[in-house]
Design a protein that fits this description.
heterodimer; A: about 220 residues; alpha/beta; nine-stranded mixed β-sheet; two-stranded antiparallel sheet; 5 helices; B: about 80 residues; alpha+beta; three-stranded antiparallel β-sheet; about 30% strand; elongated; Phosphoribosylformylglycinamidine synthase subunit PurQ (chain A); ATP-binding (chain A)
Chain lengths: ~220, ~80
């Protein structure tokens, strides 16, 4: 699997993400700078990691979504490429229109830095094949704007089409609509979520609860 | 010759505005009575190299749609100074 991690000014989770990807695939991911206009040849997974791209100015992810690299990411996704966005990466995917909805300020106005428990709502996708539906796992979260919002019609469609990937299973701390923590595109190849599975992939980090996300991807993209 | 435009960006009705809620609460704590709902937004001032007000307004609206507002959660209004 050839993964590339996008680096925007203010991205700060790219190293954690690289460790998780390397652990699952045995291969170091490449880094693609936001000013590039093409993805590395042979890329089969694009990852938008967490951080505070462009200082969260204007809206979280708004500026990054207009970066020179994003048309290439949009093109890659349109051709069926796999894209993962975590935290700020999820916000960027929403701002770029690659996933529906938006992430608002946490309802409590507090920055949330703690572990949460996620429930897998949709198994059998490139991101969740190593889990069973209904399975729960621990994931660290660290965000000020994780309050998922979409209009009722969009929320009904996401639920009706089974595009909710993860829900908060131990209480809704950020106010997210219908406890949604992560969603999928209709072709199941673009996934965004607020918590950080990449920060729980080794016993040294306190557990391996997040590893199945990356081994699922590695398994799906093994032939590539 | 330039034209100044102001873009007002507000959360849409039905979109939670926790900052507005916090401000309303703080005003109550300070003893200001009779404050109902408080909503917060942004004002973005643009200096545009334009002479035609209509073109300036159209340009500002295009900028708002593309970047300044996220129409999933926000509405906007453009005013020329």
């Amino acid at each position: 699997m050839n993964a590339t991690i996008l680096l925007f000014p203010g991205t700060n989770r790219e190293r954690d993400m690289a460790i998780a990807l390397e652990k699952a695939t045995g291969r170091k991911p490449s880094i693609t700078f936001h000013r590039e206009t093409e993805l590395p040849p042979g890329t089969d997974l694009v990852v938008l990691p967490g951080g505070f791209s462009h200082g969260d100015y204007l809206r979280c992810g708004a500026m990054a979504a207009q970066s020179p690299i994003m048309p290439a990411v949009r093109d890659f996704a349109a051709k069926g490429g796999h894209v993962l966005g975590v935290c700020n990466g999820f916000q960027i995917l929403c701002e770029a229109g690659l996933l529906p909805g938006a992430l608002l300020r946490n309802a409590s106005l507090r920055f949330l830095s703690m572990d949460c428990v996620l429930r897998v709502e949709r198994a059998g996708t490139p991101f969740t094949s190593r889990w069973q539906k209904g399975e729960t796992f621990r994931a660290p979260m660290a965000h000020g704007d994780g309050n998922y919002f979409a209009d009722e019609e969009t929320l009904d469609r996401l639920e009706g089409e089974g595009l909710v990937a993860f829900r908060y299973a131990d209480g809704n701390r950020n106010g997210a609509a219908r406890d949604i923590a992560g969603i999928l595109s209709p072709n199941l190849r673009v996934c965004g979520l607020m918590p950080h599975p990449e920060d729980l992939v080794d016993p040294l980090m306190g557990g391996e609860d997040g590893l199945p996300l990356f081994t699922s991807l590695a398994e799906t993209l093994v032939s590539a | 010759m330039t034209i100044k435009a102001k873009v007002y960006v507000m959360p849409k009705n039905g979109v939670l505005d926790p900052q507005g809620k916090a401000i309303a609460h703080a005003l109550g704590t300070l003893g200001f009575e009779g404050v109902g709902e408080v909503r917060t937004g942004k004002v973005i001032e643009l200096e545009l190299a334009e002479t035609d007000p209509q073109a300036a307004k159209a340009a500002a609206e295009a900028m708002a749609k593309k970047l300044l507002a996220n129409t999933v959660i926000e509405s906007f209004r453009v005013e020329l100074a």
